[in-house]
Amino acid sequence: MDAEHRKPGNSPADARAPVPPHTQVTPADLRRLLATESPQATLVLAAGRIRVEADSEAAAQALPVVTRTALAERVGAEPDDRALIMQAAELNTEIRMLGA
């Protein structure tokens, strides 16, 4: 697949690219979480920003959104874009319901 037709978030390099601060879970966040090697990695909301934390102590200092293991159970190890979009929407709803 050439670069012109590649979708953002589909390459392994995208999983390691710097991410601007944001407050909503995106499919790219979920791809980054699934791409981590640590099974206890967690997507967290801290100081109004979504980020992936591989360190369980650092993750404990934030609001956990979903662990890598739980996400893989929900969408599989290699989900398609549609599954990630739906999962991101569901997680954003859960965050809103918590009042975060």
Biggest sheet descriptor: 3 strands, antiparallel
In total, the number of domains comes to 1
Number of DSSP strand runs: 3
Q: Radius of gyration in whole Å, from Cα?
A: 13 Å
Beta-strand residue percentage: 15-25%
Number of helices: 5
Distance between the termini: 40 Å
Structural class: alpha+beta
Multimeric organization:
single chain
- The low-confidence parts are 1-15
H/E topology pattern:
HHEEHEHH
Q: What is the average of the pLDDT values?
A: 83
Lateral arrangement of strands in the main beta sheet: 2-1-3
* Broad shape: globular
Task: Please tell me about this protein's structure.
Residues 1-15 have low confidence and may be disordered. This protein has 100 residues and is an alpha+beta fold. It has one domain. The protein has helices at residues 12-16, 27-35, 56-60, 68-75, 81-98; strands at residues 42-46, 49-53, 63-67. A 3-stranded antiparallel sheet has the order 2-1-3. 23% of the residues are buried.
Secondary structure layout:
Elements: H1 12-16, H2 27-35, E1 42-46, E2 49-53, H3 56-60, E3 63-67, H4 68-75, H5 81-98
Antiparallel strand pairs: 1-2, 1-3
Helix pairs in contact: 2-5
